Amino acid sequence: MTTSATPGPALAAGSQPSGIRQRLPPPTPLWWRDASIATAWALVLFVVGLWLGGGALGETGLLGLTADAVTSLGRLAGLLASVLLLLQVALMARIPAVEQAWGQGELARVHRLVGFTSFSLMLAHIGLTIVGYALGTGAGVVTTFLDEVLHSPGMLLALAGSLALVMVVVTSVRRARARLRYESWHLLHLYAYLGAGLALPHQLWTGQDFRASSVATVFWWGLYAAVLAAVVAFRLVLPLVRSRRHALAVRDVVAESPDVVSVVVAGRDLERLRARGGQFFQWRFLGGHGWTRANPYSLSAAPDGQTLRITAKIVGDSTKRLAAMTPGTKVLVEGPYGRLHAGAATRDRWLLVGAGIGITPLRALLEELPAGPDRTVVIYRATSDADLVLTDELVRVARAKGAQVVSVLGPRVRARASWLPEQAAHLGDAEALLALVPDLGEREAYVCGAPEWMDLVIAAAREAGVPPEAIHQERFAY
Q: How far is 453 from 356, CA to CA, in rounded Å?
C-alpha cells in the first residue's frame, strides 16, 4: 500500500478545469427523505383503509376461510400491488425533490425492493382471487381462470400486462440481468410502464374497490394521473426543455490515455442547470448508431457555468462512441442527478475513496469542497500506475485545497473479499482505513467504484465508526 502526496505519475490531461465557478445551489433539506417515506406509507395505509371501508372485515372475520374471505384477501393483495407498482414507477420518475433526497443509487435499491414486493402481491392477488371464485362456484381453478380471462371485462388486457411485468421481473433477477447488455435490459424494463397501463382497464371495469365510493374512484384516478404526469413531466418534457434551452453540443474530445476519454460539452446559461461536482447526467449524443439510448456519466470537473465535462473508460459500445465523437454533435441530457456532492454533507471534514474510473466524480467533488489543511483526504485505489486517471488534475486541485492524496496500488487480495491490495492483506479492511485516516469516524465519506468494491469500503467505513447517514455513494450497475 503506497501513501504519497501525489497518487502516481501524471497522465496527459487534455482538458483543464476552468477557474470560473458557478453559484452553488443550497444543500438538500434532510426532511425531504422523511417526507417522501411518510407520503408512501400514507398511500399504502389509505388503500388498506379503503379496503376495510368496503366491508372487508365483515367478509373475512378473524379466521374466515370462506370463498368471500379468500376473494377479499385477493382484492387487498391486488390493491397493495397496484399502489406499490405506482410508487415504483414514481420512484424512477426523476421527481426532483425525491431524487435529491435519496440519490439514484438508493432510489434504485428501493425501487427494486418495492418492485419485487408488488410483483409478489400481484401473484397473490391472481391466486387468491381465482381460488376464491372457484370455491364460490364449485368450478375448478383452471376452469375459473379461463372463464375470468375470456369473459370478464379487461381481463385479457390485465393478463397481457401481467405477462409484461413477469418479463420485467425475470430479467431483473441478478443472474439474468448479468447476461444482458445494459441497452437490452433497459429496453425490456420499459415494459413495466406497459404492464401498469394494461392493468388499469381491468381495475376500473371489474375492481369493486376502485368503484366502491367516490373517494376511492377519485383516489385511484388521481394517483394514476399524478404518476403519469410525473413521468411525462420529469422524464420527457423537462429534459427536452432543458436541452433546447441550453443548446448543448460537444466542444472537444480528449484521449486522456489509450482507454480513457474525456468529452467537453458547451452550451448557454449552464449555471441554470444547478449541477454540482460529483453529480451525473443521463446523456444522449445525437447522430449515429445508439443515439436513442441514454447512458449515465458523472461530471469529472466541477461545472463552471460554461462547460460540462465527463470522463469515461472505454469498455463497450457506448464508450467507444464517446471516443469517436466529433465536435458540434448535439447533446440531450437528463439531470443533474445523485447525492455524491458537497450539498449532501453534514460534517466539515471529508474522506473521498475512489477506484479506477470512479475517481472522476470525486475529482469534481474535490473542487467544490472548502479548502483547509487536513479537511479532506482522498484515497485512490488502482491496480497499477497505468490505471490512474486524471492524476495531474487531482494533485493540482488537492494542493489548492490543502487536501491529502493517498494512492493504494496493487492487485486485489486473493485470500478474502477486500478492498485492499495484496501487499496489505495482513491488515483488516477497517484497520487499513483507520491507519490511513485515524479520525475517520468524524468525517463524511464519499465512495465511488465497482459495486462489489464499494460494498467492501462502505462496510469497512461503518466498522470504523462512520454512521450510515454520513456515507454517500453512486452506483451505475444495472
A: 11
Cα gap 355→360, rounded to integer Å: 9
pLDDT digits (tens, 9 = 90+) for 257-309: 888 999 999 999 998 898 999 999 999 998 777 677 788 899 999 998 899 99
Domain with CATH 3.40.50.80 in the chain: 342-473
Record the pTM.
Answer: 0.78
HEC-encoded secondary structure of 297-334: EEECCCCCCCEEEEEEECCCHHHHHHHCCCCCCEEEEE
CATH class of this structure's domain 342-473: alpha beta
Cell readout for 277 is 461536482
Residue type, 201: P
DSSP string, 133-163: HHHHH---HHHHHHHHHHHSTTHHHHHHHHH
Q: Which residues contact 472 (CB under 8 A, 6 or more apart)?
A: 103, 339, 340, 344, 345, 444, 445, 446, 447
List every span in the chain annotated with CATH 2.40.30.10: 244-337
- List the alpha helices (DSSP H) in 54-154: 56-60, 67-91, 96-102, 104-137, 141-151
Which CATH architecture is the domain 244-337 placed in?
Beta Barrel (2.40)
Q: Please write the tens of the pLDDT for every residue from 34-56.
A: 889 999 999 999 999 988 876 66
Q: What 3-state DSSP class applies to 168?
A: helix
Return phi, psi of residue 368, to 5°. -90, -15
CA–CA separation, 24 vs 352, rounded Å?
20
Residue type, 52: L
pLDDT of 85 strictly over 50: yes
Q: In what order do the strands lie in the sheet with 295-298?
A: 295-298, 280-285, 331-337
Say how many C-beta atoms besides its own lie within 10 A of residue 50's C-beta.
21
DSSP class of 370: P
The partner residues of 295 in beta bridges, in order of sequence, read: 283
- State in Å, rounded, how far the first CA of the chain is from the last one: 31
Residue 346, classed as helix, strand or coil, is coil
For the chain, give every residue range classified as CATH 1.20.120. 31-241
| Angle (CA) 19 104 439, round 5° | 65
Q: Is the pLDDT of residue 14 over 50?
A: no
The CATH class of 31-241 is mainly alpha
CB atoms within 10 A of CB 477: 13
| Consecutive H or E run containing 217 | helix 214-231
* Mean pLDDT of the region 337-354: 89
Cell 454517500 found at? 472
